[in-house]
Amino acid sequence: MSMAAEKLSEGQEHWTKIGDSDLFLFEKQATTDKKRGTVLFVHGSSMASQPTFDLQVPGRPYSSAMDRFADWGFDTWCFDCRGYGRSDKRPGTKATIAEGAADAGAAAQYIQKLRGTKSFYVYGISSGALRAAGLAENHPDMVARLALDAFVWTGEGSHTLAERRTRLPNFREGERRPIDRAFVHSVFNRDHPGTAEDRVVEAFADAILSLDDSMPNGTYRDMCSNLPITDPARLTMPTIVMRGEYDGIASFEDLIAFYARLPNPDKQFAVMPGISHASFQQKNYELVYHILHSFFTQPDPVYRGEQH
């Protein structure tokens, strides 16, 4: 990776509808003539899409994953699920995993119509991985390759979810929960302090809090009481499961059991050393980019065997 050659793609805002709700999308096109495809990034429970995938930190090359992949030749997109960021946040928005998967489908269909995109490389993180898996289950033809980062299947052995369940009555009482700078800090301190630079955490907090001062409870309720949501047998596309070494959202045992049930033999399980939960904001973010880039650019097998 040549950090000296960093290029910044100009971003473009887009809007579409899901039902009568407005959905915000953001695009950064490839900066190279050789196009490698289109990446759709799906955000998690506690921050909107641009802070997660297009974070700008002076002096931190390619702090924006969208800039990095655009420079590698990918057209890149993210979107805010209903209840987050610049998308519709009207009262009554539940922002469940299923609704987030539907939002991802609406975003993908908009891009297909606008750009003629046939299928996507899809990356989701945390509850965004559950949403991305939901998109893949609902529209397998849309997903060429699926990357699930900080994913959870049954929740068994998750100390993060065990702690969160103690507050489940509060999540059930209201539609939204307040967030502040201390909350953003807790994302980086709950598993293994020191995996992210302080300046990156502060820039991340600034970006998140510029858009939201509260977050919907829908994904928290789902992850605390409704797992498993994803059926691995329905994920027929090539899939990678990415787990940070210190991430507390899912145990290795839970993820390995999920991985074993993925039907496509074109699958990978990647452990990311020195990483806790928010992969792109970690000190080892270049390692995360490398794993994801390698998976998205892997050639298709020329021989599959009689069973295929």
UniProtKB/TrEMBL annotation:
The keyword Transport does not apply. Keywords: Hydrolase. One of its GO terms (molecular function) is hydrolase activity. It comes from the Bacteria. Residues 36-280 form the Serine aminopeptidase S33 domain. InterPro entries: AB_hydrolase_fold, Carboxylesterase_BioH, Hydrolase_4. PANTHER family: HYDROLASE ALPHA/BETA FOLD FAMILY, PEROXISOMAL MEMBRANE PROTEIN LPX1. This is Alpha/beta hydrolase. It comes from Flaviflagellibacter deserti.
